[in-house]
## 1
Amino acid sequence: MTAHQRPSWRGVVRWFAPIVWNYRHTIAFAYVFRLIAIVASLAAPWPLKIVIDNILGGRRLPPVLRGLDLPGAPGTLVLLMGGAIVTIATVRAFAESRHATISARFRERLNTDVRDRMLAHLQQLPPTIRTTHRSGELVLRLVGDVDQFVRFQARTVPTLVEHVLTTIATLSLMFWLQSELAMCAVVLLPGLALLVRHYGTRLGRASRERRRREGEVAGLAQEIVRGLPIIQTLGGEQHARDRFRRLNADSLRAGIEETAVAAHMERTLRIAHAVATALLVAGGARLVLAGRLTLGALIVLTSYLTQLLKPIERLNDLAESTSKGLASGERLLALLNQRPTIQDRPDAIHIEKAHGVIELRDVWFSYGGRRQPVLRGVNVRLQPGELAVLVGASGVGKSTLLSLLVRLFDPTSGVILLDGQPLPALSVRSLRQQIAMMTQDTHLFAGSLREALTPTGERLDDRRIWEALALVAMDDFVRGIPSTLDAVLGEDAVNLSGGQRQRLSLARAFLLQRPILLLDEPTSNVDPTSEAVIADALGRMRAGRTCFAITHRPSLFAQADVVYRLEDGCIVPHPHALRVVARQGAV
């Protein structure tokens, strides 16, 4: 995406506003309690003013209290003001608690909603997204950027609104009480804001440097953990530890620098705060001595000055949170702006159960930006009950052919048909529900073995699962481990051998009970025993299914009904085929 195409904060707002609108009632309730808390905080010093000015100072009571018939007036009024202080504090505490609870609920629901929307969009993008975005970057978008952006919406924006409303209300009350002191506060605030921004810039640089160093430490740590077996085998433990120690030292220095800048900033702000308070108190005291201001009013003004300084002291944090939130939103929008290459037509047909006849007619394909076609006029017919095998050198387009069959991409020219219907005429979801696939990357989710075998979340009868395990000769192994089907697999089933993972992947494909079975190198990187088991299982699974396997290994030839060879993007005769197929232009 070029610079002029980069999403702006206005684009982020347009995208996000309809999502937030769905939570308008929750947001409204949250703001009601936030407003109550603001009013309570502004009212908090007034009972003390009444005690000092009207009870201790002997001044006339405010009009609202003059009409009260209070027995033992001064003592009763003191008790009444004490009760008012407790009541205001209770109301404020209750309002802030309710606001925090409602805001947290809104934030978590919004987080879940946006993550779900982002994942749904990500799942529609072509596999080539991995060529422009590293997997870690995509995970960061899905988790980190969503969290940062939602925090900005659910925390930073309401805090900004609160500070603006509080500042306006506080200054209005200060001008009502004493305009000269209020003007003094107005003059002081910009100076304090500039001071915060000055130190905030330095703190921002130090914080970014610390995060960068911490990211380097985390990245190296991940590489060391993932490559631990290789490191141990090659005797590279000390070298890895030295690299890790150096990065840790850099991270330590960056952390100390950030802490030093933050401490300097806090010290300066405390002094500035004290100077501002001293000026207000000194000026207010002179007005009290001149009879132009009451002592209670001076206390209220001092309390309000403290409230005015709070948002100023947090100015840098709020600016950083805002910039981070908007940047995260722009990155999310940039990902959302990448449109799926495969989408359903308005008149797409939904199929329930396919017969399984697949035809490729003069199929050509080249990836975007590449002039050289990967496939050149491929013609293939796959039929139910047959196991077709495709062989060829690495990089000639065998896996691309499988990607076309499941419509991760569409042919550049030519047509692929399922039961006589062109694939674009079928809904993508219903098409893929006809296909079970076994890839080189077994990708078994962490969790129980039962969950790993049911990727669609369907609850299967244990009898069916044991049948599938028996088909791939894994039943005895599973019965021999604690918890059997409920045994916990590690990430990507790393606690199993490569052959066992391949067998489980095949069992998973069998359990889907779909009419089309596609296999990408099902016998690669496995021992001879597992290879024989998988080949035998495929021979039995093909009954009633259209089976199409890519392989480099000859072990599947004995089970195959037809063998194709892909060379230079074209189907050519294969010398070991049981039924040589080399038809160009006719099916």
## 2
Amino acid sequence: MTDIEIAQQCKIKNIEEICQKVGLTRDDYDFYGKYKAKLNVNQILNSPERKNGKLVLVTAITPTPAGEGKTTTTIGLADGLNLLGKNAVVALREPSLGPVFGVKGGAAGGGYAQVVPMEDINLHFTGDFHAIGAANNLLAAMIDNHIHQGNELNIDTKRITWKRCVDMNDRQLRFVTDGLGGKANGTPRDDGFDITVASEVMAVLCLASDLADLKARLGRIVIGYNTSGEPVTCAQLKANGAMTVLLKDAIRPNLCQTLEGTPAFIHGGPFANIAHGCNSVIATKLALKLSDYCITEAGFGADLGAEKFLDIKCRVAGLKPDAVVIVATIRALKMHGGVEKTELAQENLTALEKGVSNLLKHIDNIKNVYGMPCVVAVNKFHADTQNEVDLLIKLCEQNGTKAILADGWAKGGKGMTDLASEVVALCEEKSTLSFAYPIDAPIYDKIEMLVKRVYGGVGIEVSDNAKEQINKLEELGYTNIPICVAKTQYSLSDNPKLLGAPKGFTVSVKNVKLSAGAGFIVVLTGDVMTMPGLPKKPAAESIDVLPDGTVVGLF
């Protein structure tokens, strides 16, 4: 059966039962239909009687077209912990419509390790992304209106950095010229769209601690520069109040469930290759207050999502994982070892051993850069041979790290209890979180330290444009904040063709921009795009709805 067929056969519990499972009273939530709830969090988060549970971060190797299954593993692990008698919940990001209708698919897990209702979660869900897009585009409209109405702030129309956004893969909108048609229709200028998950409003919502902090962060957003070269903020345009109104419900975390009835907090959805790639701080903190084990995931490999989770989110929110799970598949490791996708079903120990270099680099990052205890989850595929499984476990053990076979896709929580037991043991180990770079280091040094320590490169090549941007940001005093590197997810380098654990490479820094509301500096490398395009055969071509309302073709 397909993922959606498995999900549609599940007998979903009423969301009230899931709310009661985590100790929520009727005043703590509002129904959003029968199977979803919006949570009221302030009273819970500020309750000194509620102690935090253990935080487990799930990351992965560098992704390949063969698939890794990080979200599936995250969900299955939470189910497995509950089967062991632990009080566990899962905290995930919301999927973007762009990948759903494009090529990657959704973010609701797979097989028998899914969150439900998966159709809702993968599509409009509770409307959070629409609210984020509306807030983003309200600011864009107010910028151009301000210019049209006399431009009191002297905004330089050639130095506006704020883009419009839409939650869809639409390459046609990357670069546009708008305001055409005469004076009554605005001021002509070069413009463009980002996908909603790359909007700074998404990052702001996911890093805000409460509604007041959300409004303050929105106010600090820099939309561009005036004719004197000074930054112009959202607060100067008096837009942050109305934007906060649009986001007042979107900032409230959503509660759903897994196929096995494990509570699932699903909130926020920044991409990890072009943003910071983690669910909201509010949802994570709430999940910790309501469980003994909170299992969360960060997008793509440990060089992207996990790096940003640790260097950005943990710094901002004062969080520290108690254990880290690194997801790998034998299929993907063989691709890193040079095997074509069409040949992955054949046993190839040589390629597997070569490709393990990628996994070992991610292990090194977690253990030796960040100081976190970790375990490898070998996400099982039917074509994996026993020889390949034994070799992978052996190579990990030689590196001082345990690898455990995980079969959540086929067996749900029952296939994850061995991994769950190891995670419980890891959570009892003492650890001290370190960061990849000191927060007070110059911007240039932060980028270089990240490239050398986490990516395994030898240095950076900075364009003249990026040098000018870095100098300007340091001149303006934006130094003591984290960096958020936007780069390809398909390689530890900025070149998607360099698989495994490449050596001797440099990373090209093309542009640097300030996300003052989010509280970090975005560093754009290689050819990474903040607005993806659709593939030759989009997934949307196969998605449909039957006369009775049943969705089909959604994975």
## 3
Amino acid sequence: MTGSTELEQTASLLRLVGVRGPSIAPVEVTRAGGVIGRSSACEVRLADATMSRRHAEISWIGGRWMLSDLGGANGTWLNDVRLEGGAPTPLAPGDRIAVGPWVLQVGTWAPTTVAMTGDVETADAMAQVERIDPIATGRMAHHRLQLLIDCAERINKAADERAMAMSLLESVIEGTGYGRAALVRLVGDDEGVEILGSCARDGSEPDQFSRTLVIRASGGEMVTLASQESQGNWGQSIAELNIHSAMCCPILLDEQVAACLYLDARGGEQEVQPDAAGFCQALSQLAGLAMSNLRRQEMRLRQRELDEEMSAAREAQQLMVPMQQKELVKIDYEVEFLPGRVASGDLFDVVTLSEDRVAVILGDVSGKGVGAAILMAASQAYLHSALLRHESPAMAVADLNQFVLERSASNRFLTLWVGVFSVDGELTYVDAGHGHWAQCTADGVTVHHAASSPLVGAFDEVEYVDVSVQLTAGERVVLMTDGIPEQPGQDNEQFGSERVQAILEKTRTCKEDVTELLAAVRAWSAAAALADDTTVASVQAIRDESQAES
């Protein structure tokens, strides 16, 4: 199976092709993601009673495609492994997603897809296909037993599907008399097959296959071409190849056909062994078990790698987040960081600049995982130093913009809010592409949506602007990452800034701001975990008492 790296590098769109179940057109999912379900609001709508309204979700997270189960009663299966707990699982090209009656294959397969030969399912062609009686396949010659044992050992030691397929095919040719063999599976609307592996006695690469046999075997039957004195009614390609014997066996994973073992003999090649059908059936069963084990191992490896990456990212985040609550000379604050399903680059810091000034920083780095966490940590350290060098927060952010542009990938950037609170009640801030914050004053709550400056790390030679406001003692500034207003609910509706304002109009302290907002977002969320890491901070202005009295 192709590794996940290829999918990460090439796929601005994820393509899903139905390979089992009711006929559907190929579906493309953008990096904005999409929900699979029977609701009309779903990006991938599959209308069937076995589907939940919101069944599963495909997301672009941290530079890779992910699949999450959304808790549907009938479950979501990836490569025959049921997804649990709503945690995102990485996708790779060729993966098969089973939801309801459908199996959807991930990615595109043009480089590995070949056409099948032209024996279209006419009455003549279908009449020459015989179903093999399972009872007859049980009479397997004793001398085949050692071949089966050797093959079972080899395929269960195989490191991947390619190695497993080649071990299987070598045993098939050795034990049946067929001249060539291939492990194949249908692609798209039965227009061609994907070759998982192939071999032949004469060293050639099989590249043409009986369409009728593969389609019949993909339905779950073991089939063979009937013996005929005349081949005049066969498809033209089969006749030209002079195939005199052919067989196709389904390989089942949890009662679904994962691939087909195809064999044929041509021209003057020897007749196949009389017990070939039983031998192939036994090998197909062994191959199904080996393939299932390989896929489970791959899924466990993907999940372990993802867990290790997320753990490293979490550690980086926790090292950089200051105390949850604290009272300083100029302000007091409350902050809470709530992990989402994957680690991201949320940034929060409080920096004492002098006896009269303190800076508060809240930001969000694009992307997820270790890369975002590292950029967050580097940006936080650099901005801390820049704020100590400059009186103006805008100048400090401009320096940070150049730092990120010179050292980060082109698709990495930050949204950032930086505010400097002075002892006289003045707040000077820069809103660099962030836009998610609110002022709580005696006159009411104002929720800010539009940023006053560009985001950080996206453009060179941009201007960052200081904005100043005067705060009175006790007034609060509430900062949040986009995980609050953009958290989706049951019908994919976002939490929104109006709900933020309604909550803050009822709260009176920094602690209430944080706890009430997070409680409301948790209740709103349709999933067990929030879609994104979420940080909320509430900062209360404290006037210096001696200046206030004067």
